[in-house]
Amino acid sequence: MNTILIKLHKLGRPLVAFSLVLGTATAAIAPVAVSAQAPSAEVDRAVAALRGISTLRANFVQTDRSGKNTTGVLTMKRPGKIRFQYQKGVPLLIVGDGKALTMIDYQVRQVQRWPIGNSPLGALLNPSKDVARFAKLLPTGDAGVTSLQVRDPKHPEYGTITMIFVRNGAAPGGLQLDSWVALDSQNKRTTIRLSGHQYGIAVDDKTFNWTDPRRPTTR
Predict the structure, then answer these.
(1) CA distance readout (Å), 75 to 22, 65, 96, 206
(2) Domain assignment of residue 208, yes or no
(3) 105 pLDDT band (50/70/90 cuts)?
(4) Is there a domain that residue 120 lies in?
(5) For 22-61, what is each residue's pLDDT tens digit?
(6) Nearest 5 degrees, angle CA 22-CA 10-CA 195?
(7) What is the CA radius of gyration of the chain?
(8) Strand partners, 198
(9) Which element (helix H / strand E) includes 13?
(10) Mean pLDDT, residues 166-177
C-alpha cells in the first residue's frame, strides 16, 4: 500500500487524518516540466552522494497535502536501514530493516509491512536498485541545487521519488540530501525536509528494532 491513512487523536484537537505517502513524487516546491534524460555525470554524482552515506541522522519535518507539519528524527544506516521516529504524541513509527519497511501504529496496535523495493524509498535504501537508469533531472534555476526524479516506468505503482540535493562540501560527494517529495496516484503529496545532518556517526543496529504492540516482544 503506497498511501496509508492513520487517524490520530491530538489533545485538545479534533480527530484528524494523518497521511504518510511513500508513493509518487513531483518537484520540491511546485510542479515543473521534466527535462530530457539527465546527463550521466550529474546523475552519477547524485547517486554517488547517496551511496556515500554510511550513516545519517537528521531532523525532519513532514508536510502533508493539507499543509500540516509533523516533526521527528530520521536515522539511516546503509544498506537498507532507516527509522522515522515521530514527535512526542504521534504514536507512529516507521522502520526499514534492509528488506522491508514496517509501519507500527501504537495507538491502534497495528503493524503493516511492505518490501522496500515496492516503495520509492528504495532509491535511498536499496543498494541493488539501479537509480541512474530511471533518473531524470528537473530544472531548479539554481546551480547549487540538484533535483533528481526517479521512477520505474515498468512499475508506476511503485511510485516516483524526487530528491533535492544542495551543494555542501561536508556531505558525501559534496551533495547533501535536503528533501524529497512524494505524490501518490491520487495526487496526495507529502514533503520531507531534513536539517541538522550528522554523517558517519555510530549507529547501533538495535536502533532499527521495534516493539510489537500486538504482543509483548521486541523485534
Answers:
(1) 17, 24, 10, 12
(2) no
(3) very high
(4) yes
(5) 433 333 323 333 344 445 788 888 888 988 899 999 999 9
(6) 50
(7) 17
(8) 57
(9) strand 13-21
(10) 94
**CB distance 162 to 148 below 8 Å:** yes
Cell 550529474 identifies what position? Answer: 42
The domain tally of the chain equals 1
pTM of the prediction?
A: 0.78
Residue 134 maps to a domain:
yes
Residue 15 domain-assigned (yes or no): no
Q: Any residues with CB less than 8 A from the CB of 215 and at least 6 apart, and which?
A: none
Helix-then-strand count for the chain, H and E? 2, 15
Distance from the Cα of residue 62 to its chain's centroid: 10
pLDDT tens-place string over residues 109-155: 999 998 877 666 777 776 566 677 778 889 889 989 999 988 777 77
Which domain CATH number covers 109? 2.50.20.10
Domain residues for the domain of 142 are 24-202
Contacts of 17 (CB under 8 A, 6+ apart): 5, 6, 7
Q: So what's the pLDDT on residue 217? A: 55
- Alpha-carbon distance of 169 to 125, in angstroms, equals 22
Q: How far apart are CA 189 and CA 63, in angstroms?
A: 8
**Average pLDDT of the segment spanning 183-192:** 74
Grid look-up 530511471 returns: 134
- Residue 208's φ and ψ, nearest 5 degrees, are -100, 15
